[in-house]
Structures are given as C-alpha cells and as structure tokens.
Amino acid sequence: MKKTASTIRDVAAAAQVSTATVSKFINGAQRFSPKVEAAIEAAIATLGYRSNPLAKSMITGRTNTIGLSVLDITNPHFSSILKGANRVAHDQGFSVLLVDTEETPSRERRTLEELSRRVDGMIVFSRLREKEMAWMAEIDKPLVFFGSLAELPLPTVASDDHAGAYMLTQHLRMLGHRRIAYLGFSKSRRDEERLGGIRESLNAAGLELAIFDAEAPSLAEGERLCSAIVLGSQRPDALICYNDLMALGFMKEASNLGMAIPQDISVVGFDNIPYGKYTTPALTTVDLQSERMGATAMEKLLAVIRGEHVEKLTKVAPQLILRTSTVARRP
Prior knowledge:
It is built from eleven helices and twelve strands. By secondary structure, it is α/β, with parallel strands linked by helices. Helix 5 links the parallel strand 1 (65-70) and strand 2.
C-alpha cells in the first residue's frame, strides 16, 4: 500500500505546536524560540514532510517563478539568453516560466498580462514601439526590459548594438570594402541602433550604404532577399546582416547562385550563434554576449523583487568575432 504523505497537521502534532505555528515557521513569516524551531525541524525531518508550493504561494503571495517572454525560441540567440537567466534563477531558488510571442506584436499584451498573474516578476522582449508600451509600465509586477528605452520608467538590460555595428563596419573598411550593404529588420528598435553604428563608420569615410529590409529576422528571409542583393546592378563588396540567421540564409542561397563567399562578397552578422562557426566559410559576427545578458537581466530583476535599488540601464559590451566569411577586397 502506498504510504500517505505527511501533512502540516502531522508535523504540528509531532512538534506539539499548532498548525499555524508550523505554517509561519515554514514560510518564514515569524521566528520562534530555539526550542520550538528545533522541535519543528526535527518533526519535518522525521516525517519527511515537504511543503506544498501552491499552498505556500497562496499564503505568501509569492510563486518563486520568473516569467521570461522571448520573440522566437527557435532563434539560438534567445535560447542562450534563457540559459543564462535560468542558471541565475535556479541558484536563487526560482524557476523560469517561458513564453514565446513568435514575432507577433499583436499577441504581446495579452500574453504578458496573463503571464504576470502567475509569476513574481518578468523579463520581457518586445517588438512594440515604445509609444505603444505605456501599459507595460502599469503591470503590477517587477519587470526588466531587454533593450534601450527613452521614456518608460522600466529597468533595462541592453547590448551595445551601436558599438557592435561600428566595430563590424570598421573591420570591413579595413579590409578595403567600399560598397557595403545592410540587410536589416526595421521592425526592431535594435535595427536603428545598428544602422547608427554602421553609418557612423561609413560617414567618416564618405561612403554610402545600400539598405535592404527583411520581413522577419530569419534564415528564410536571408535566403529570399539574396538574389536582389547579389544580382542587382550595384552588387556590394560586403553585406552586414541584422543577425546570424539572416546571414546564414543569405550565404546558402548565394552559393546556389554561383557566388563564392568571401571572394565575391564578404558577409557578417550579429549574435554569434553556435551554428556560425561550423558553416563553410565560418561566419564573422558580433558576439552580443547573449547568455551573459540573460544572467544580467535575471540578477537585476531579483534585486528589484528584493526591493533593492538598481540602475535604469545596464549595457553589455559586444565582442567582434573574426572568421573566414570576410576577406580583403581584391584591387
């Protein structure tokens, strides 16, 4: 016969105290004399009692769960962020509840409002423009946002996209590239920051920038737009892609079209996803420190939950990763 699990009443009876005293002790709501606490601890150990997390949350109002909302979990950039955030949460006794808005801004508000009722705080990615996000600051739960915000009073963690794009463009210029194009994703606020870094570098040399805009930051979009980029009348020497997925999709289709990379066109991306170093050629990219960003955001959110003061914006420095998808331009 299956043994019945011990209850809080069993613990109270064994420790010769009330169930209210046991409940307050387990939930940390009140301290008791060393003798009483020792008796409760001994009873818990002897009976093998485990508290019910749901019941505990009803008493304390806490779930020890953090919500993480990402834009596309199939993108390895977000998988790495989850890994970093989950490691910190686990070390602090929290679990992570993941939701994927699937690059669909119209789903974000309902998804986040529902998530907020199930967690102690949230870490959020969003495709919404800041002027469309005022409701987010009114959610009655601690929240950390990924990306820079100009006006909303939310603590944020952001990669320095401007600096990363500037470094990437400087690298291409040092290789002698003059006709540089950008395969971007204008629906993202980070696109503007990356364009700013690219243009800062090019403007200093008096160079123009050709821009192509994708509908999604995906492999398929890099592949779809490839022919328009390489078969046009002004084929670029080098292409900067909004992310590594788009770069890899572009490289695949460019090979199908008979182009040699990097001999015919150098290609670079952002995120340093794991697949990039295993392609042929391996992809030059900007490492935005995705796992570190996730860990930093979780540390910041847990500090907010504890009532500690945090800086409004924390920026994570990028790193340029040089591989073989770029080469010096032939004279």
